[in-house]
Amino acid sequence: MDRTSPDEHMETAEAHRSTHAHFQKAEEFHHYKELYLHKVHPSLTKENELRKTLEDPSLAGEKKQVELDLDRLERIHSSINNEVQSIESSLNWTNISSLINELKSFEDALQKTEKIVEQAKEDSLKAKIEEVESENEIFREDIKEDDGEDEENASFIEFTSGKEKVGKSKRRSRKRKR
């Protein structure tokens, strides 16, 4: 007959915190937390910023260029979330190998997509600059043509400007009528 109460078999929280198993689990959690804070979260944030950049209406064409890359990022992002959820729900802080693999794939895909977006932004900027320069050139040509017309019509302008209205201004005549 066992005369010990169930409470005597239960380990207290204080007693557990002082065990080697607790210290080991706490250290494993610390490593996982560092991985998440320094690798996972920044990568996911970077992807979010990239997506916000592509929401700019002036980059609508560029977004179409990277649509497949964005889909791939979204799939890997989902896998990362699943891995994080699995690790955190099981409290198995050492089960990070598949998370690390997914994270590596995600970072590679993110880097490729960022390069494509940067190149597309540069191309878009160059196209806008060329468009503005072209418009400026057309404007300059129009001004030159207008200057040429002015020289050709100079005698007409002089002739018509010599026939200015003669007489009193309307203001004077209005004042006198009152």
Largest sheet, described in full? none
Which consecutive residue ranges, at least 5 long each, have pLDDT under 50? Answer: 159-163
- The span between the termini is 130 Å
Strand content: under 5%
N-to-C order of helices and strands: HHHHHHHH
Structural class: mainly alpha
In DSSP terms, counting alpha (H) and pi (I) runs of 4 or more, how many helices?
8
Q: Give the number of domains.
A: 1
Mean pLDDT: 79
Give the overall form.
rod-shaped
- The portion of residues assigned to helices is over 70%
How many beta-strand segments?
Answer: 0
The gyration radius over C-alpha positions equals 38 Å
Oligomer: single chain
Q: How would you describe the overall organization of this protein?
A:
This protein starts with 5 loop residues before the first helix and ends with a helix. Helix 3 runs antiparallel to helix 5 (67-90) and helix 5 runs antiparallel to helix 6. The chain has 178 residues and is mainly alpha-helical. The protein has one domain (32-156). It is rod-shaped, with a radius of gyration of 38 Å. It contains eight helices and no strands.
Briefly characterize the structure:
With 178 residues, the chain is mainly α. 82% of the residues lie in helices and 0% in strands.
Features:
178 residues; mainly alpha; rod-shaped
List the helices and strands and how they pair.
Blueprint lengths: L5 H4 L3 H5 L2 H35 L5 H6 L1 H24 L6 H56 L1 H8 L8 H8 L1
